[in-house]
Design goal:
Blueprint: E1 27-32, E2 37-42, E3 55-59, E4 61-63, E5 67-72, E6 77-85, E7 92-99, E8 108-111, E9 115-120, E10 128-133, H1 138-145, H2 160-165, E11 173-176, H3 188-196, E12 200-206, E13 229-233, H4 235-246, E14 251-254, H5 256-264, E15 275-279, E16 294-298, H6 305-314, H7 316-328, E17 339-342
Parallel strand pairs: 1-17, 3-12, 3-14, 4-11, 14-16
Antiparallel strand pairs: 1-2, 5-6, 5-8, 6-7, 7-10, 8-9, 9-10, 12-13, 13-15, 16-17
Helix pairs in contact: 6-7
């Protein structure tokens, strides 16, 4: 299983730099595994692909404005990217920094109008541990002072519109530094339409980390090691999913992040466990899915672990055939792009 097996040609112009005017304006590519059918549709037609009794699990993580711009005490410019909150007390975070000279432990940072940081000892490169202080609640101040962290393939600065559009309408639990992008197309109308068709909808939380953008650096993909991402499966969600599986009803995952959480939180009997955990599950062809029957997902980077996950569910050749069709028909790719449904 080689990395080059998951490559495909993608014209630069198909990488979406902005979202479509409305969330539901997205296009949809529907893949039916049994019949090997691939057809183009509109996202607004998504509901017609569901049956009464189907269950949809979504990821309600919320993207934090993780980019802070400011100055070192020496006067040099610095950008700080909050990656994850550390287990220690207070607002101590593992961060990435971008500046002319790396800040040393003890260095003080002035970030935005009211956030100060102190670089702490520790942290494995390239991460630095930083303690933040500010007047008032740090989360509230970060919402004002921080910037939304758009993915690296969106080659522009985030604007005010991104604060809403690079966030799902059901985002609740702050902690992600990247959006669960398959959910960006959903509106309250979409959710109500599905409920009206007899579809159950339940949440879980997986905080998407920077590792989602890290390239695979080995030729043999089995040697790749995934990053850890924390998740929470509510008791109500676990009960509902297990009941659906027992009754032979389909479980749909909204996005690859939801898929990883569901398939990681399975016990020895194939039942979904409620509770907190941390997933480094790497899903690639040959993986046996125990929970997920269908998947809604965006189009992913060549040679990425996300493309490998999709290929594990639908078959590599079938997925690459669908991607070639999406390129021919000029679908939009990646975070602000269009989406596909695998049945």
């Amino acid at each position: 299983m080689l990395l080059d097996d998951f490559d495909f040609a993608l014209p630069e112009g198909l990488i979406a730099q902005y979202p479509r005017p409305e969330r539901e304006d997205a296009r949809l590519l529907v893949l039916r595994r049994e019949s090997r059918e691939i057809r183009s549709a509109a996202f607004r037609d998504l509901g017609s692909c569901f049956r009464p009794g189907d269950l949809l699990v979504l990821n309600d993580t919320r993207v934090i404005p993780a980019r802070l711009l400011g100055e070192k005490e020496s006067g040099g410019r610095i950008e700080v990217f909050l990656v994850r909150r550390l287990a220690s007390a207070g607002e101590e975070w593992a961060c990435l920094t971008k500046c002319s000279k790396p800040p040393r432990p003890g260095s003080r940072l002035c970030l935005g109008a009211s956030i100060e940081g102190v670089v702490l000892p520790g942290g494995e490169p390239p991460y630095r541990h930083i303690r933040f202080t500010c007047p008032g609640d740090f989360t509230d101040v970060l919402e004002r002072e921080g910037r939304i962290p758009l993915p690296p393939y969106i080659r522009r600065e985030a604007d005010d519109a991104d604060r809403a559009r690079y966030q799902t309408v059901f985002a609740r639990a702050g902690g992600a530094v990247a959006a669960p992008t398959a959910g960006l197309h959903f509106t309250e109308r979409t959710l109500e339409d599905l409920r009206g068709r007899g579809v159950e909808i339940h949440p879980l939380t997986l905080h998407v980390g920077l590792g989602t953008f890290l390239p695979v650096r080995v030729d043999n993909i089995r040697e790749h090691r995934m990053h850890q991402e924390p998740y929470v499966v509510p008791e109500e969600t676990a009960v509902a999913v297990n009941r659906a599986k027992e009754e032979g009803r389909r479980v749909f995952a909204l996005g690859t992040t939801t898929t990883r959480a569901l398939e990681h939180a399975v016990d020895a009997n194939g039942r979904l466990r409620a509770g907190e955990g941390s997933s480094d599950l790497f899903i690639y062809p040959g993986f046996r899915f125990q929970i997920v029957d269908a998947l809604i997902t965006n189009f992913h980077l060549p040679k990425s672990t996300l493309l490998m996950l999709v290929s594990a569910l639908a078959g590599r050749e079938f997925v690459l055939e669908a991607y070639r069709m999406a390129v021919r028909e000029e679908f939009h790719f990646f975070s602000y792009g269009d989406c596909m449904l695998i049945l």
